[in-house]
Amino acid sequence: MSNRVSVAASVNKLEQLYRSGFHRYLRVAEAIAGNPDSGLDAVQEGFARAIRHRSDFRGDAQVSTWVWACVVNAARAARPQRESPIGEELPEVGTEESQSLSSVRNLIAVLPERQRLVLFLRYYADLDYRSIAGVLGVELGTVGATLNKAHATLRQQLEEVPK
Amino acid sequence: MTIQDDPFISEILTSHVPERREIAPDWANVLRRAGVREPWRLELSRRRLLIALAAILVAVLASALAVSAENDWWFLRDGPFKGPAPTGEVVVVATGAWEGHDWTLTAYRTHFNPEEEVCLALTPSESPDLRGRDFGCGMIPVPSEWKSFAFGFTTGPKGSGFPPYVLASVPGEATNVRIELTDGKTIEAKTFAAPAELGLQIRFLAAPLPGCPNLERIVALDDQNDLVAQSSVLHQPGTCPGEHPGGEPLPPVTGHR
């Protein structure tokens, strides 16, 4: 909640964030949602939701973090409901296409959701650990641990790919 | 915390960042989805504009007449701190005293296009200039699977005789709240049930804070101490709860009713 005093300024701030970071939001939302159209829709919906609920954040909090949470949640909602917990069979990775775009994406796709989100926010959005913790509503240490786990799994899978 | 990226993974992932698509930002679309009209950039004809203005005037007058009789609270008066119009009555949630200063916690429902919200105000009972008051509105809190950003909060002004404090509306299951400070300390507080007249299955938090702490997180817990919802606060370093955006405290007003 916040006082209504700064409501108009908030919309301007949101517009500023939207215009300056549009392609970063789009990149992350596409990655989470799993396809370009849903990703674009998630960015638009995430910001629309941020406007509708702009009174929920305080001016002295990180507005950008809050907006990222709105976009991430919209993208999560747009993602088809089929999760593949880690440990399940991974998709085959062809020799010729080892470490190709599709193989890396396939490997990421089967990570647990939190690990995927942390990877996207770190590498596609370039957010620092503190911001990621804010976006996902988790402890700072959880971000580091989750990222380490994702790194280890990816590294193992990538190293197993035939050269 | 130091960023410790794995260089190997980092290289792989950054080289596989999805290509930038040639799509232009469309802010007007965002505003339409949010139910907000883009001011004056819309193609309102002069006639439509006059009709719209007349409708707004009628709505404002009707709203003012409706609230003036029973709802003469400071947060409903005309002025820069006026809250949105209530869609029901303003109800007293709780009363109490902090450091010898009595207060009254009130709440009301409102409509914030296109969704319903709840507004919350803390009013000093005996302060003639209402120093220490605070007010905020936010989405009606519901438990969610994601459990983050599930409720709003606001923090009260300092330097008013009142201690800094935090107000929040939380999901109905949240009988307790744990307030985590950046120095590692935590504060436990009981929540107040919403009065039946409000017609909402939610509860409210009003809790004083020691000194000038930085909030880290607010965690809403049920009676089994299980997590119901949480909200990261992420105060910028050096920002005290109660310092409003821009660092300006709320100016005094006279009389609360």
Summarize the structure.
The complex is a heterodimer of chains A (163) and B (257). Chain A has 163 residues and is an all-alpha fold.
Walk me through what this model shows:
- Chain A is mainly alpha-helical and 163 residues long.
- Helices cover 67% and strands 0% of the residues of chain A.
- The longest helix of chain A has 27 residues, at 7-33.
- The termini of chain A are far apart.
- Residues 1-9 and 83-99 of chain A have low confidence and may be disordered.
- Chain B contains three helices and twelve strands.
- In chain B, strands 1-2-3-4 form a four-stranded antiparallel beta sheet, with no helix packed on it.
- Chain B starts with 6 loop residues before the first helix and ends in a 25-residue tail after the last strand.
- The chains are: A mainly alpha (163), B alpha+beta (257).
- The interface between A and B is large, with 64 and 68 residues.
Major sheet of chain A? none
What is the rounded distance between the termini of chain B?
49 Å
Strand content of chain B: 25-35%
| Element-level helix/strand string of chain B | HHHEEEEEEEEEEEE
The general outline of chain B is: globular
Task: Report the sheet-strand fraction of chain A.
Answer: under 5%
Helix content of chain B: 10-25%
Based on CA atoms alone, the radius of gyration of chain B comes out at 22 Å
Total helices of chain A: the number is 7
Counting DSSP E segments of at least 2 residues, the number of strands of chain A comes to: 0
- The strands making up the biggest β-sheet of chain B line up spatially as 1-2-3-4
Chains forming the largest contact: A-B, 64 and 68 residues
Please identify the oligomeric state: heterodimer
In this structure, how is the largest beta sheet of chain B organized?
Answer: 4 strands, antiparallel
